[in-house]
């Protein structure tokens, strides 16, 4: 029997399914339009492709509290039309186990089960793309809480050269997402991030912010590995610079071999590449089916 997954993103939705042997047999991408038409299109995909479980890894904020009346909703998103969308309601009549978590927790789970985080109990997966968010897997469980972590909005110290910049986050002037997301880079320089690939100033500043976020994650959660994905990480300089600056900013305080001598194996790219999210979403559904709820 096949297991299905949905990676629900702000710009596109990926639907796919796999089985015990093949993690991803098919995937298809649908542009994120208005909720009703888009989710009905997703639903049609699963009418054609029958699955025994379905996992949904969604952009947020979402309600993950199973006791809440709005469990399974996208709640207060600024994305037009999507506020208060009951995502799970589109799939309940399939009468199969439905897993539900954040997009980044989904991708984190994918990497923990099948990718760079295999065998570890404490892993952080960050996506640096249109938005920024980190999935957090601690002591063998995906971290939820009052709602769920919103690490993209951790506050950072602005660089001296960047004091007059005001990024795209409507809530904060110095959060990680407003300073380091793809749209932030584009707003600062007036050019798409991918086109600035060999501009040293851009990647120096970008890694200054990403390294601050790495330091915050390391000192707060003590992860065994940090995996960084998303479009911005496709730049070939940013990972190396982020590793170097993370070490510099930690300044020798965490005396672990992994950080002092093997940071190249400590802050890494996703092994599942751009499929971490959909593979993790499929896994969320499988876990629900097998009652291995780790959220
Ligand atoms: P999303 O976050 O919407 O799911 P992505 O993870 O692909 O999508 O991130 C998209 C962002 O990544 C865009 O802001 C884009 O400018 C940026 N991006 C894409 N490719 C590159 C690249 N090679 N270098 C730097 N930034 C990139
Ligand atoms: Zn913010």
What would you say this structure looks like, in words?
- The protein has 295 residues and is α/β, with parallel strands linked by helices.
- The protein has two domains: 3-102, ATPase, nucleotide binding domain (Nucleotidyltransferase, domain 5), CATH 3.30.420; 116-269, 2-Layer Sandwich (Nucleotidyltransferase, domain 5), CATH 3.30.420.40.
- Helix content is 33%, strand content 19%.
- The chain contains nine helices and twelve strands.
- It has helices at 35-48, 103-114, 176-180, 182-189, 200-221, 238-250, 257-260, 263-266, 276-289, and strands spanning 3-8, 12-18, 26-31, 53-58, 73-74, 85-86, 98-102, 123-128, 132-138, 141-142, 225-229, 267-268.
- The protein has a five-stranded mixed beta sheet. A five-stranded mixed beta sheet has the order 10-9-8-11-12, with helices on both faces.
- Helix 5 (200-221) crosses helix 6 (238-250).
- The two termini are 24 Å apart.
- The model has no long low-confidence stretch (mean pLDDT 96).
Q: What keyword list fits this structure?
A:
295 residues; alpha/beta; Nucleotidyltransferase, domain 5; 2 domains; five-stranded mixed sheet; 33% helix; 19% strand; binds adenosine-5'-diphosphate; binds zinc ion
């Amino acid at each position: 029997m096949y297991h299905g997954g949905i990676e629900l993103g702000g710009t596109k939705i990926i639907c796919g399914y796999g089985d015990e042997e093949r993690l991803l047999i098919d995937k298809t991408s649908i542009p994120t339009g208005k909720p009703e038409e888009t989710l009905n299109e997703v639903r049609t995909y699963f009418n054609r492709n029958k699955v025994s479980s379905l996992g949904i890894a969604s952009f947020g904020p979402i309600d993950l509290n199973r006791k809440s009346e709005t469990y399974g909703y996208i709640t207060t998103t600024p994305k037009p039309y999507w506020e208060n969308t009951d995502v799970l309601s589109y799939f309940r009549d399939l009468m199969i186990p439905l897993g539900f978590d954040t997009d980044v927790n989904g991708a984190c789970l994918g990497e923990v089960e099948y990718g760079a985080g295999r065998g570890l109990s404490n892993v952080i997966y960050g996506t640096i793309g249109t938005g920024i968010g980190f999935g957090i897997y601690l002591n063998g469980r995906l971290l939820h809480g009052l709602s769920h972590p919103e690490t993209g909005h951790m506050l950072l110290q602005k660089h001296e050269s960047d004091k007059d910049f005001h990024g795209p986050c409507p809530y904060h002037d110095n959060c990680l997402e407003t300073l380091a997301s793809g749209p932030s880079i584009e707003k600062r320089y007036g050019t798409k991030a991918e086109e600035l690939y060999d501009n040293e100033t851009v990647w120096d500043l970008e890694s200054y912010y990403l390294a601050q976020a790495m330091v915050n994650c390391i000192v707060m959660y003590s992860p065994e590995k940090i995996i960084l994905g998303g479009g911005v990480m496709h730049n070939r300089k940013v990972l190396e610079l982020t590793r170097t600056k993370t070490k510099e900013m930690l300044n020798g305080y965490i005396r672990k071999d992994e950080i002092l001598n093997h940071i190249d194996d400590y802050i890494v790219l996703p092994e599942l590449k751009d499929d971490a999210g959909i593979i993790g979403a499929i896994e969320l559904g499988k876990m629900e089916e097998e009652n291995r709820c780790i959220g």
